[in-house]
Amino acid sequence: MDSRLAHHTSFFQPPKSFLSILEEDKDLSVPASTKLGCTLGPQTRSVEVLEQLLQAGMTIARFDFSWGSMEYHQETLDNLRVAMRNTKRLCCTMLDTMGPEIIVLNRPEMPISLNAGQTLTLTCDKSVQASATVLPISYPTLTGTGLAPGSQVFVGQYLFTGSETSSVYLTVQEVRGDEAVCTCNNSCVLEGLALTVHIAHMRNEAPILADTDLAAIRQWGAANKIDYVSVSFTRNAADMAVVRQVLDSCGLAQTRVMAKIENLEGILNSDEIIDASDSVLMSRGNLGICLDAEKMFLAQKKLLRACNLAGKPVMVTRVVDTMTDAPRPTRAEATDVANLVLDGADGILLGSETFRGKYPVQTVQTVLAICKQSELCFDNQSYYRSLMEYFGCYTLHPNLGKREALASSAVRAAAKINAALIIVFTVTGQTARLVAKYKPASPILTVVCADPHEAKAHNNDRYSSAGHDRSSSDGSSGGDRDEVALLQQQAQLQPDEQVVCPDIKSDGLKWTLMGEVQARQCLLYRGVLPIMADPDFALPGGAILDYAISYAKQVGMVRSGDKVVVSQCPRTGYSDVMEEAGVVKLITVDDHVMPSPVRFNHPLFVIGSMDPLTKHQD
After folding, report:
1. Which CATH number is associated with domain 32-100+207-376?
2. H or E stretch covering 199
């Protein structure tokens, strides 16, 4: 890892005075830039609650296959789709794998009570019934795991917060083949939907995808065209390759891969993991068991910085555990959330707070309120300069490619003219990711353009006499992961079939937008607000920009006279995401008027259709 990763300035810009802290916030029209994911469970699977979560700001829904059946998760996802239609808000879907996680088997119906100081044996014999004296685990053998006298073992409730008395810390006293005799360090009652086992410093050799994961991806994931797969206990880049092969084999080439770093092996191999993944999740629950408490912040800051420099979205878990049972976070938790934003986290992923918590909607509102306050204190200029230093842009030999140069130029231009908004046109979302990498102070309104093959297929599906396909009705069409490959395909099309982002000066150009998958995937990028046009709604060239600006004006993102930066890339068979033809334009809101009146209801609006997720379903 580059030595410059270890050094970066603080990105905190303090308020003018203590008195200013007490002032009422005035600008509430723009949502928080930081993204918010929720683990859906028993408390958050009804249509009513899901609607409230979407309205509160949830942008990512996690379906954790460490527990529950495919039928259970399908019912939850179906309810989420109804909630999206009712609220007209998009939500990214994430399948979280079980991976090589170790669980307790053969549990009795009643909870298991343990007392501090008693002896408890862990065994790999799967025929044994779990009791207060022995716990069978799902791992095949303890041989070669490094388990030895003195090793620390954690057995806890799924999504353990630390405040429950439902988990136990064990110290290994003796290892006998595939049995480990341990001493309980605390009293507890083992209960909950699932009990997980975490052995500190263990090298887990199990496959990165369990058999249940393979079935979930190939059946549930493929049927629902899931947006992201979160890979639990990612150990190296090879794990990422395995998952991508599985996704490609079942028609999920457009699905992106999120690496969960939650053990020592993942931390030590984080460089190659970040490079091989589309995004990263720092799972602080399990990682906190591997690391000493006083070392946790070092790993966190190091990992977030590495992801920021690579331009890979990074999310963090375990932030307001207290709100699982209380309506307010602790002061330390509120400060922790703020520091994550200041350290460059793109999003927060809630676990027990929304899975089984008593206040899921209030938790989302509280966390995003803290995030927005933190963003107001985020020193975007210092952050931008730190990336420029890393790329050597202040030296005679900068290491900045064309795509990076154009993206950074758009952000720099927005800062210089104090732009209220950056508008980005993208096909796969990669251009939006590059602009978001520099974390501008201005929100990034992203217009997702369509691949002509997809648009044609989409229109055929919608008007086919055979009826409307279910997957397109809920906004889950396919898309290429690699924008370069997409553009190479376009180069082979006829000129009138090529994808062209709107050119402000080009009148009479006919084109369409689609890309609901790509739009949802953009919901992982900090500061990005994706919109798209209905493929049935043809517009003359440049008109879509007017629609986008008018939309931003009506929802309060911009006002008359505000400056806007537009990042455009005309696509006529070029070989890269942004080539020399890519431009950054500076415009004024008053210069663009929407061609026809359209009413807007929410920040994630599909232009051209007031109800895009329900249209043409019959």
Report:
1. 3.20.20.60
2. strand 195-199
Print burial letters for 599-611: b (CB count within 10 Å at least 16), e (below 16): ebeebbbbbbbee
Q: Report helix, strand or coil for 122.
A: strand
614 pLDDT band, cuts 50/70/90, is: very low
Q: Name the superfamily (CATH) of residues 103-199.
A: PK beta-barrel domain-like (2.40.33.10)
pLDDT tens-place string over residues 190-212: 988 889 999 887 888 899 999 99
Can you spell out the DSSP letters for 124-161? Answer: --TTSPP-SSEEEBS-S--TTS---TT-EEEEEETT--
More confident residue, 42 or 553: 42
Element (H, E) at 265: helix 264-268
Looking only at the bridges linking them, the beta strands covering 168-176 and 152-157 are: antiparallel
Reduced to 3 states (helix: H, G, I; strand: E, B; else coil), residue 182 is strand
Retrieve residue 612's tokens.
């895009």
According to DSSP, the β-strands at 102-103 and 195-199 are antiparallel
DSSP strand E in 217-363: where? 228-231, 256-261, 279-282, 314-317, 347-350
Banded model confidence at residue 554, pLDDT cuts 50, 70, 90: confident
User: What is the radius of gyration, based on Cα positions, of the chain?
Assistant: 25
Give 523 or 592, the one with higher predicted confidence.
Answer: 523
Query: Which residue ranges make up each domain of the chain?
Result: 32-100+207-376, 103-199, 382-607
- First-residue to last-residue Cα distance in the chain: 55
pLDDT in tens, 112-148: 999 999 999 999 999 999 999 999 999 999 988 888 9
pTM of the model: 0.85
382-607 belongs to which CATH class?
alpha beta
CA distance 506 to 377: 41
Q: Which of 270, 356, 373 is nearest to 314 (CA)?
A: 270
Structure tokens at 241: 């390759």
